[in-house]
Amino acid sequence: MSAAQPSRVPMLDVLRAVAIFAVFVQHLGDRFRPFVLRQAGGVLPAVATGWIEAILTHGHWGVDLFFVLSGFTLGLGFVRQYDKRAPARTAAFFARRAARILPAFYVALAIHLALHPGLFRDPAIWRSLAVHAAVLQGYLSPGRVVLIGASWSLTTEAHFYVLAPLLARWLLAQGSPLLDNPRARWNPRRLAVFATAVCVGAWLLRAALHDYALLPQAHPGLLELSQRRWVVTRVDQFVVGLAAALVYVRVGVRLAAHRMALLVAAGGAVLLLGVAAPLDAATYSRPGGGLAYPLVTFGMGLLVLAAACMRAQSGAAVLAPLQWVGVVSYGVFLYHQLALELAGRWLPGARGDASWTSLALTATTGAALACLAGWLSWKWLESPVLAWVSRKLQPPAAAGRRAVCIAPDVSPPAANA
């Protein structure tokens, strides 16, 4: 068993800030990307402009990072509770996850509806509200009514929560005859086989669905659903996060002593993503495409593990604002599109044709409004609800048997583009 690890990992909040920034840039680019690329094309070589375009069109990879972070954060709770021989409390796990995502989501829906009363004239609005209430908006869109566009990722996230206790049991050899063997607590071979099997299975399914979705007879939304939204084709990223959490708990202290190696690993992860972006842009819309996705999954997993093992004391003052954004990132995610819309609507300099002035005003005002909304959501809704639920779900005395249970956590769920 490893030495004790801190209950909260500050560098993961930094990565959450990076992820929500990428998602924010993606949606800011919905309006300003053509303008930026025209300007860049006028002064930069075509190769440089192509790289800029590849980067700006892959802000949605922020959700890939969020999914890996989600698996990692939940994995920490599963592994630690397993090590404490805590009794299995799956119902409590589901209750905590529901408390983490649903109250803030429902309040955000109400605010979006209040600011868009015209939606109530759409005959499909009540069916859409029912779909959102069930957190199925990622899979279903009655009448194409979109309330919070980015919220489709909550559907994928929620369905991962359904699978998470079972995946954790398999990952930790729960119910295995090896439980009485101390080596079963850290079995790298089992971990590698399990993670590889899930990842390869998800990748093969994605590849088959990708090619079928490009056929004329396929449903027009199948490509988006199968490559971005269905949990069965995104489960690899959650499992990579779970596996990284197990590595972190078991050997993270030893890894932390090799700071230069961790920096190289993080740099390698960024390099992998840099290679994957143009590859994805070149192949995604063709048969046999989607080749970049495994690189993204591996790169994000490596980045999360390396960041978790790093100690941030030397740059704590610099990283503090990013850590704060990471803590409130769920609220930022829920409100950032609305913030961008209001900034473009309210500010005279942000209206009209795209320009550097309108871009700067929209970006800064939208970011400020989103962060303010995220902080208010965290302070007055998310944090109090989590504290109340944790009190209500205070576990009974350990029954003395080994089991998997998620510890209370306040990590944000996945945000998405």
Q: How would a textbook summarize the main sheet?
A: none
Overall pLDDT: 87
Order of helices and strands: HHHHHHHHHHHHHH
The number of strands is: 0
Radius of gyration: 22 Å
**Strand residue percentage:** under 5%
Low-confidence region ranges: 175-184, 398-408
| Cα-to-Cα separation, first versus last residue | 38 Å
Q: Could you explain the architecture of this structure?
A:
- The protein has 417 residues and is mainly α.
- It has one domain.
- It contains 14 helices and no strands.
- The longest helix has 37 residues, at 356-392.
Which helices and strands occur, and which strands form pairs?
Elements: H1 10-43, H2 46-56, H3 61-83, H4 90-115, H5 125-133, H6 152-171, H7 188-213, H8 222-229, H9 235-256, H10 259-283, H11 293-309, H12 316-327, H13 329-346, H14 356-392
Key structural traits:
417 residues; mainly alpha; 14 helices; 69% helix
Brief account:
It is built from 14 helices and no strands.
